[in-house]
Amino acid sequence: MKIKTRAGSVVFENVTKTYGLGAVTAIDNVSFTINPGELVTLLGPSGCGKTTTLRMIAGLEHATKGKILIGGKDVTQLPATDRDVSMVFQSYALFPHMTVLENVAYGLTVTGVAKAEAHEKAEEGLDLVGLAGYGRRLPSELSGGQQQRVAVARALVLEPEVLLLDEPLSNLDAKLRRQVRTEIRELQQKLGLTAVYVTHDQEEALAVSDHIIVMNRAVIAQQGTPRELYEQPASGFIADFIGDANLVGAELVEVEGDMAHIEIGGLRQTLPHRGLGIGPVNVAVRPDAIELSAVNGESGQSSLKGHITHAAYLGNQMQYSVTSDIGDLFVIDPHIDAPIATGDEVRIGFSGRGLAVVPTDE
């Protein structure tokens, strides 16, 4: 017996979810498509609507307007029990009095699968997540990472069209989060699963996703691949939310084809104009795209200067807070051997990558 995978698509068509007779809008006219076999992350700040969206896929919430399809089937009004999805909860939701094997087999046994067959499939599930031989233990005898894997195995043995993961790593420490997210991603790719993953952790989303849907204030702010969102943010919000950014005022002074000449303080940069015209713009500047050098005598005649207000050593990098004519800047510098001291004057430049023009009106 082998666990079968049946990757299904997920489609939202103009879905709205309101509460309190329309007084509160949790999701506002949201549309997207998740293709079979993709891992798509719903990312955004608290209260943006990402968890409500996941719960509507699961059937734990129902759309006020619009249509939801899973595997091409309209499930908008179907209850959770009639949807071919499995969910991994933030709290793991394991039964403490049951063994690990019984926990994994539970969903099968309550649907009428014979105990022997359910346990055989549960053993396969545990083997898939690297927990072969752990079936007789209780959840309390496992580490947090192992309990998370049990929750994943319990979801997988149900052979869902779509696997849903709600903040699955939030209860783990930083090092274990990195390990378990890698395991989840490798398993998803190995089995060809369709997975929808909710998190507020930008690094986690960048690390595991084929596609990211960033939500803010009940709507989709931008969606795309991790690289597209990081390198081509559609707004200052996206630039700052995905990987940190310094948002500085600038002037677009000339357009040549797809490129534009941008004045940032006294420095000129050539960047894709991304459809923006001549006039004021914002430039999102990644912290590692800023180059600092100490001012020494006349070598400090740069057109853009600043002062270090805070310096922190983080082992593999220095982090600086800098005041300048273009505002307060957060800088990440890999040069740790000769750090710049707090209070020093610096020259400010920009590397060739990590800058993007974004609109000023948001």
TrEMBL record:
It comes from the Bacteria. SMART domains: AAA. Belongs to the ABC transporter superfamily. GO terms for molecular function: ABC-type transporter activity; ATP binding; ATP hydrolysis activity. Pfam families: ABC_tran (PF00005), TOBE_2 (PF08402). InterPro entries: AAA+_ATPase (IPR003593), ABC_SmlMolc_Importer (IPR050093), ABC_transporter-like_ATP-bd (IPR003439), ABC_transporter-like_CS (IPR017871), Mo/tungstate-bd_C_term_dom (IPR008995), P-loop_NTPase (IPR027417), Transp-assoc_OB_typ2 (IPR013611). Residues 10-242 form the ABC transporter domain. Keywords: ATP-binding, Nucleotide-binding, Transport. This is ABC transporter ATP-binding protein. GO terms for cellular component: ATP-binding cassette (ABC) transporter complex.
